[in-house]
From TrEMBL:
Belongs to the ABC transporter superfamily. Coiled coil: none annotated. GO terms for molecular function: ATP binding; ATP hydrolysis activity. PANTHER family: ABC TRANSPORTER, ATP-BINDING PROTEIN (PTHR43335:SF4). Residues 6-237 form the ABC transporter domain. It comes from the Bacteria. InterPro entries: AAA+_ATPase, ABC_transporter-like_ATP-bd, P-loop_NTPase. It comes from Chitinophaga tropicalis. Pfam families: ABC_tran (PF00005). This is ATP-binding cassette domain-containing protein. Keywords: ATP-binding, Nucleotide-binding, Transport. The keyword Transport applies.
Length: 338
């Protein structure tokens, strides 16, 4: 991949005998919004810590903005803004004062520092609340302030670990939109770790599915879906006005269409699995054959199905090798259930 800004090669981390990250190879392009998706204990935070030079890999390398994170962590720190899942501020100071303090600590020029802080507060949507004490800030407001804290250092890459944890659905939507806009407007590369499939799907250009320290798959939603569901990438359900008189005849008629892989007739519902979207052709055929249609529904495979499918495959593989991965499944569902 050309212009990769993050390059992980054979990245591995052992904690004692536990392999937390297992031979990870990954490249992320400049300007991309990449989602690292996986259940509890998958190794996301450990990977991030290695990218920031905060923990040493047992093997392999993490290169960020051209610098080896283990050998040159200070250079990486200058280029990367990291927002952990729980951002802390001085509660007795206003948000403006907090950010001003951070800006000065980071050596921003005295002349324009007030303007710059104000500009950042407005950029993250806190212009009207910037003189409130952070003790009075909601979780969502603190996350926005955390983002301003990261942005004021003018990073090339921002790494966000579970940035939407504990924010209400409207807040999540707004926060993710903000991240996406910032990435587009300012060309910032974003790496986002999350358990939340739907959120990742909304905002990321590409995702990596991470389970048990291994990157099981990476790509955009379309590519992942194609790889997994190439035999049945599209499911069309047609509801007929009446139960078909001859089910076998209907099934064999539909099966003759090249793109159709499987047909199931149940009552007046017909499920047709196809390799591509041939919904108009199917509807035309039913009408030509004199069937009344009361409903047509086409199912798209989203990230949830993709993730579950990779997850199930991985479970099956591990079980067949005598390992129990039940812990991953339990912890994943616990965290996504709320
Ligand atoms: N400092 C540590 N010492 C020993 N084991 C650790 C340490 N940090 C993490 N681990 C273990 O390494 C594995 C990966 O943990 P990590 O925190 O990287 O996962 P994660 O995907 O970020 O999970 P979560 O979503 O719960 O934060 C887990 O089994 C965890 O218990």
């Amino acid at each position: 991949m050309e212009n990769a800004i993050i390059e992980l090669e054979g990245l591995t981390k052992f904690y004692g005998s536990l392999k937390a990250v297992d031979n990870l190879h990954l490249k992320i392009k400049a300007g991309e919004v990449f989602g690292l998706l996986g259940p509890n204990g998958a190794g996301k935070t450990t990977t991030i810590l290695m990218m920031l030079g905060l923990t040493e890999p047992s093997a392999g390398t993490a290169k960020v903005c051209g610098f080896n994170a283990t050998r040159d962590p200070i250079s990486v720190k200058r280029k990367v803004g990291y927002m952990p899942d729980n951002v802390g501020f001085y509660d007795n100071m206003t948000a403006f004062e907090n950010l001003l303090y951070i800006a000065r600590l980071n050596g921003l020029g005295i002349d324009n520092v007030h303007d710059r802080v104000q500009e950042m507060m407005e950029l993250v949507g806190l212009g009207a609340a910037m003189h409130k004490k952070t003790s009075a800030y909601s979780r969502g407001m603190k996350q926005r302030l955390g983002l301003a804290d990261v942005l004021i250092r003018q990073p090339e890459v921002i790494i966000l670990d579970e940035p939407t944890l504990g924010i209400d659905p409207t807040g999540v939507k707004e926060f993710l939109q903000l991240i996406r806009e910032l990435s587009r407007q300012q060309g910032i590369t974003v790496l986002l770790s999350s358990h939340h499939l739907h959120q990742v799907q909304q905002v990321c250009d590409r995702v990596g599915i991470f389970v048990g320290g291994k990157l099981l798959a990476e790509g955009n939603i379309h590519q992942l879906s194609q790889n997994l569901f190439s035999e049945e990438s599209c499911l069309v359900t047609i509801t007929l006005a009446d139960t078909p008189p001859d089910t076998a005849e209907l099934e064999s008629m539909l099966s003759e269409i090249g793109a159709v892989r499987k047909v199931t007739v149940s009552g007046n519902g017909v499920d047709i699995s196809c390799v591509e979207n041939i919904t108009p052709e199917l509807v035309r055929l039913f009408v030509e054959k004199g069937f009344g249609i009361t409903g047509v529904y086409r199912k798209e495979y989203g990230l949830e199905e993709i993730y579950q499918q990779y997850f199930d495959n991985n479970l099956t593989e591990n079980v067949s090798h005598g390992k129990s991965s039940g812990l991953f499944q339990r912890s994943f569902f616990r965290k996504t259930a709320n």
